[in-house]
Amino acid sequence: MENLLKPDYGVLLLTVCNFLLLVYLLKKFAWGPIIGALEKRENQIESDKQNAAAARKSAEELKKELDERLAQISSEAAKQMAAAVKTGEAQKEQLLAQAKEQSDRLLEQAKMQIEAEKNKALADVRKEISTLSVLAASRVVEQEIKPSSADKIIEQVLQEVKGK
Amino acid sequence: MDVAESISHHILDHDWGVVLGGIRIPITTHSVTIFAVSVLLVLGLAWAARKHQSRAGKLVSVLMEEYVSFIRSGIVLPNMGQEGRGMLPYFCTLFLFILTVNLAGMIPEMKTATSNISVTAALALCSGALIVGSGLKFHGFWGFLKGFVPSGTPGWLVPLIFPLEVISLVIKVCVLAIRLFANMLSGHMVLICLLLIIFIIGEMSKFFGVVSMFPAMLLEIFMTCLELLVAFLQAYVFTLLTAIFAGSVIHTH
């Protein structure tokens, strides 16, 4: 059992040589290619990450620009809308005024026309009445009276009636 | 039954007695195991490092990359910084070599070479050389020596601190060897002792010998699982401590 702690220098030396040779061979044939591939992939990933970050930054800038343009367009549209509403209101007011004026004019014309028609009707009535009156009077007096004289008489009678 | 002899027989290294021109060639069970493990590692890892088309080959390549990544990001870079990148192949080899030698002992008819103080001392010597080499590489000879004395130490304390720090480094390296040796040896000793319990009790009474077989085998299975854990743990501890010691020499206080 005491041999357990007794070093065998031959084995020690052989193990050192064996291990160092193993480190060299593995470095050359295994770890070198593996570490190389790993670092290459990591560099690729890092490069991809940087590209992605740049693309993201570019996309964000584009989005910001588009947002600004959108805001500008919205503001312009709002302005144009307000101007259109204002113009519409003015046109509405104008049209209403024109319509009112036209309606007033038509009303006035209608009134005048009615008045004229009324006067004409009254004149006709008056004439008819005078004719009838003359006829009636001629019948009453049984004498022929000239229409002009009759008109005069009738006018005098009417003035007398109005005066009363 | 001579228990001590049985244990020694199963644990101790056996010299094959090869003598060449009057000089003893150290062909022993442990050195053959180490050689076999080394050949296996070189062939296996060289195959794994090649570009593969098959799914199994790709899986092995991915596993190897994960392993290298683990050693680099988990052991080397946190303890040694970017200066340790160049020593990554050493640490990758160290961990895998210790682990494979530890596990080789679990295979019937093979021996755990790391339960031999000469083997662990050889590995510790290599790690010690790496630690000293790192100090010399990054600080030069005088810078490396200065690193043994913490900054701000009064001048009169330097003659005391300097040898203490040098001895501390030597002890650290020695402890690397003893820790691995003791852990692997003790595990195998316990396994053999558990098996011997059956035979010792069996010599006294065959009936009790048979009865004792069941608890002994259960304990044996438990200890084997524990040995598997210890195999990984000790490989990790040895590699990690080497990186820490090398890091402490590179990044001096």
Structure classification of chain B = mainly alpha
Continuous helix count of chain B? 7
Class by alpha and beta content of chain A: mainly alpha
SSE ordering of chain B: HEEHHHHHH
What's the number of extended β-strand segments of chain B?
A: 2
Helical content of chain B, roughly?
A: over 70%
Largest pleated sheet of chain B: 2 strands, antiparallel
The share of residues in extended strands of chain A comes to under 5%
Termini separation of chain B? 57 Å
The helix/strand order of chain A is HH
Multimerization status = heterodimer
Low-confidence stretches of chain A: none
CA-based gyration radius of chain B: 22 Å
Return the average pLDDT of chain A rounded to an integer. 87
**Number of E strands of chain A:** 0
**Number of helical runs of chain A?**
2
Could you tell me how far the N terminus lies from the C terminus of chain A, measured between alpha carbons in angstroms?
A: 170 Å
Number of domains of chain A: 1
| Cα shape of chain B | globular
Q: Averaged pLDDT of chain B, please?
A: 88
Report on this structure.
The complex is a heterodimer of chains A (164) and B (253). With 164 residues, chain A is mainly alpha-helical. Chain A has one domain. Chain A is built from 2 helices and no strands. Chain A has helices at residues 9-141, 147-163. In chain A, helix 1 packs across helix 2. Chain A starts with 8 loop residues before the first helix and ends with a helix. Chain B has 253 residues and is mostly helical. Chain B contains 7 helices and 2 strands, in the order H-E-E-H-H-H-H-H-H. Chain B has helices at 3-11, 29-49, 55-80, 88-104, 117-146, 158-204, 206-250, and strands at 18-20, 23-25. In chain B, strands 1-2 form a two-stranded antiparallel ribbon. In chain B, strand 1 (18-20) and strand 2 form a beta hairpin. The longest helix of chain B has 47 residues, at 158-204. Chain B is globular and about 70 Å long. Chain B starts with a helix and ends with a helix. The mean pLDDT of chain B is 88. Chains A and B meet through helix 1 of A and helix 1, helix 2, helix 3, helix 4 and helix 5 of B.
